[in-house]
Amino acid sequence: MSHHTIEMRDVDFSYPDGTPALEGVSFTITHGESVAIVGANGAGKSTLLMHLNGFLMPTSGAVRVGDAPVTKETLRDVRKTVGMVFQDPDDQLFMPTVHEDVAFGPMNLGLPVEEIETRVDDALERVNASRLKNRPPYRLSGGEKRAVAIATVLAMWPSILVMDEPTSNLDPRARRDLIELLRTFEHSKLIATHDLDMALDLCDRTIVMKDGAITADGPTAEIFSDDALLDASRLERPLSMRDPGPGDTA
Predict the structure, then answer these.
(1) 6-14 vs 20-29, strand pairing mode
(2) Domains by residue range for the chain, with CATH
(3) Which of 30, 6, 46, 33 is nearest to 205 (CA)?
(4) pLDDT by residue for the chain (250 residues), tens digit each?
(5) What is the DSSP string of the chain?
């Protein structure tokens, strides 16, 4: 039995006002896979991610994490398995210090103080943010906040890392540092992103969404080479895969 797998089967979801957001979504993520989810604004990417640890529940269909269905009864175990990093780090950082933010999850698991401290130190070291331990989150840069938000998830020792637009609002250096950091993680990773160059760097597989449905699922390089598919999905090739312009040099 593996806790590192995610499966969605025929998932439909509509918001309380009746607005449909997902339609017939099915896929399986296996142990150790890094998968990008791409699509234009409103394609359903964030809504899909919020089903993976029970922030939203399907209108119909099923979500499974490992061998367990995602239900109200399994949420505690599911959320220990699936670590979610939100698009805006400020949604995850709400304590007076970085230390308290990273300790919050393990503390709520009822772990001994010694283990909590070990997890905090290890998680901050993993994201190269040990120096920030006693800083207030509101005084951090965007890249530092993103790193600490990831640390709050890593401190829970998840088997699966789910991220929503992790490179948004980062400067080029912070973006590169984050990509290099994510490259070191052995977790199964599911990343919703508009940053197709990052997806190409990190993810061997890409799922394309449009209007709440999956329109393609395959090797990233093949997906990003299909101009007709990208155009229909209101996407463009990553910069690294575009032909040089007339004034460019090879």
Answers:
(1) antiparallel
(2) 6-232 (3.40.50.300)
(3) 33
(4) 355 789 999 999 999 998 999 999 999 999 889 999 999 999 999 999 999 989 999 999 999 998 889 999 999 888 889 999 998 999 899 999 999 999 999 998 899 999 999 999 999 998 889 999 999 999 999 889 999 999 999 999 998 999 999 988 888 888 888 898 888 888 899 999 999 999 999 999 999 999 999 999 999 999 999 999 999 999 999 988 887 665 555 4
(5) --SS-EEEEEEEEE-TTS-EEEEEEEEEE-TT-EEEEE-STTSSHHHHHTTTTTSS--SEEEEEETTEE--TTTHHHHHHHEEEE-SSGGGT--SSSHHHHHHHHHHHTT--HHHHHHHHHHHHHHTT-GGGTTS-GGGS-HHHHHHHHHHHHHTT--SEEEEESTTTT--HHHHHHHHHHHHT--SEEEEE-S-HHHHHHH-SEEEEEETTEEEEEEEHHHHHH-HHHHHHTT----GGGSPPPTT---
Query: Two tokens at 141?
Result: 């840069």
Residue 139: both structure tokens together: 């005084």
Q: What is the pTM of this model?
A: 0.89
